[in-house]
């Protein structure tokens, strides 16, 4: 199995690389490819089983869009053919239609039918508790953008607490086939071990075992109780 981590030197704004460190513990015998920004992504020339990209600064985000643009069709084909992706934070925005920023319209790859509005003077931070299928999901958000578009039939999480694509939505993130995009940040795979098991199954792991299972499951159930607590602000 090949697992590609895109641009870890830049796309690790909120400690998102913790997701990969945890996957390495879960899959110690598999091949992990850490692709620097100066290198050509491995997925362009060969098949990989899982592609991960985390949150990044706005300046790097525009450079990633530029780097991906010549490979738009290849990325679309991988998504349509069922390759597993996880894009966290603002990473998924590079695959949307465009990003509005103080009068500019930054063209993105256009693979998903949504756009983002950036406001560097108004960062939103909050907690999220919701459902992906029948799996409880918890996480955190810290973002200068809000997304707009129809994702009510292609969302990742239906939020119970916290916001979705924007403050008027409770549909968070986007899913197509095995592509999972979410504004959640940080080590969401450690925070959500049941989703991690689901993701491993999508990657082809039979009867997946997660690392430190007893400890992460205990922490997960405690965290669920905390996030459900109405006294905790979101």
Task: Describe the SSE topology.
Elements: E1 2-6, H1 18-26, E2 31-35, E3 50-53, H2 58-68, H3 72-80, E4 84-88, E5 98-101, E6 104-107, E7 114-118, E8 124-132, E9 135-143, E10 145-149, E11 157-161, E12 171-172, E13 174-176, E14 179-182, H4 188-191, H5 193-202, H6 213-228
Parallel strand pairs: 1-2, 1-3, 3-4, 4-14, 5-7
Antiparallel strand pairs: 5-6, 7-10, 8-9, 8-11, 11-12, 13-14
Structure described in brief:
By secondary structure, this protein is of the alpha/beta class.
What does this structure look like?
The protein is an alpha/beta fold. It has a single domain (2-228), classed as Class I glutamine amidotransferase (GATase) domain (Rossmann fold, 3-Layer(aba) Sandwich), CATH 3.40.50.880. 25% of the residues lie in helices and 29% in strands. The chain has 6 helices and 14 strands. The protein has helices spanning 18-26, 58-68, 72-80, 188-191, 193-202, 213-228, and strands at 2-6, 31-35, 50-53, 84-88, 98-101, 104-107, 114-118, 124-132, 135-143, 145-149, 157-161, 171-172, 174-176, 179-182. The strands form 3 sheets. The chain has a 6-stranded mixed beta sheet with strand order 2-1-3-4-14-13. The longest helix is centred in the C-terminal third of the chain and has 16 residues, at 213-228. The model has no long low-confidence stretch (mean pLDDT 95).
């Amino acid at each position: 199995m090949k697992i590609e981590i895109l641009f870890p030197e830049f796309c690790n704004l909120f400690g998102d690389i913790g997701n990969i460190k945890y996957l390495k513990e879960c899959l110690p015998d598999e091949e992990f490819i850490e692709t620097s920004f100066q290198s050509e992504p491995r997925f362009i020339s060969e098949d990989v089983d899982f592609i991960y990209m985390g949150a990044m600064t706005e300046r790097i985000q525009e450079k990633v869009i530029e780097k991906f643009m010549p490979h738009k069709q290849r990325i679309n084909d991988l998504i349509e053919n069922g390759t597993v992706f996880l894009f966290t934070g603002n990473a998924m925005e590079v695959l949307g239609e465009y990003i509005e920023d103080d009068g500019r319209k930054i063209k993105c790859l256009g693979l998903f039918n949504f756009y983002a509005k950036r406001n560097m003077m108004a960062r939103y931070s909050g907690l999220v508790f919701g459902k992906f299928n029948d799996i409880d999901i918890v996480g955190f958000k810290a973002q200068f953008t809000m997304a707009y578009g129809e994702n009510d039939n292609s969302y990742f999480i239906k939020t119970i607490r916290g916001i979705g694509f924007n403050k008027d939505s409770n549909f968070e993130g986007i899913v197509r086939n095995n592509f999972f995009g979410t504004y959640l940040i940080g080590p969401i795979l450690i925070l959500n071990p049941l989703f991690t098991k689901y993701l491993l199954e999508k990657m082809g792991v039979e009867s997946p075992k997660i690392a430190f299972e007893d400890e992460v499951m205990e922490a997960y159930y405690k965290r669920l109780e905390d996030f459900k607590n109405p006294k905790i602000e979101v």
